[in-house]
Amino acid sequence: MSRPPIQRPDLGGPFPEHLAIVMDGNGRWARRRGLPRVKGHSAGVDSVRTITTSCARMGVASLTLYAFSVENWRRPSAEVQTLMRLLRVFLWRERRTLMENGVRLRCIGRLDDLPPRALRTLRETEELTANNDGMLLRLALSYGSRSEVADALTAAARDVRAGRLDPDSVDEETLRRYLYDPETPDPDLLIRTGGELRLSNFLLWQASYAELYVTDQCWPDFREEQLLEALRDYAGRRRRYGGLLPDETDPATSPQGAS
Ligand code: FPP
To answer: Is 72 a catalytic residue?
Structure first.
């Protein structure tokens, strides 16, 4: 299937390969309009659709959306059921658009906790889109970073017991291999909508050097214009990874300065 050409906006600086988003503020968006919370989630699905398509067309390599955390199971069961239904309907309705835009779907989290019908739809969509060569859309579902690390340690401990892993050889890369999706590079930019200044147990390992961007806009109001604003902000960031950029080194101590 031929898909629309990639149109990467020129924002005057680097463009994130991997974008991760904490989609917060659906409930507040609804409350401000005198609507039940679930209406906020339905409006949030429209933002998921818009942002997924925009990112795919702009040439983002991976987009990870925090759709449901392990802690979200504590919400009233009617809200949880609505979220699961919205997820299924989204996947059904969007299959065609995902295919048209060459998007591959992958889910991360404790997926066995999901209702069977939702899990089946997810697996079917993953299979259907597996050979697409465009953007990777990762949905974090029943996801928590601490559970991910605990699950990784359980799997690694089993491998040690079975003689497949030497405990003295364990380093950061070994642990990464046991995370839910080790092949996808770490996020470059992590956006949080709804104004809260926290990570909420999302990609704690992978976001070690992600640039953070928090906007007060609630998720249902986050559309292409707001996305471009975040990307513009990222384009102006200077990423150091704990080191220094060439123009920041003291001439007397830099290799060139010393020579
Ligand atoms: C946080 O808002 C949002 C969620 C817990 C769910 C996010 C789900 C969607 C955007 C829709 C379904 C997803 C897909 C992928 C189709 P909140 O309810 O915590 O908002 P609040 O902080 O204002 O109460």
So the answer is: yes
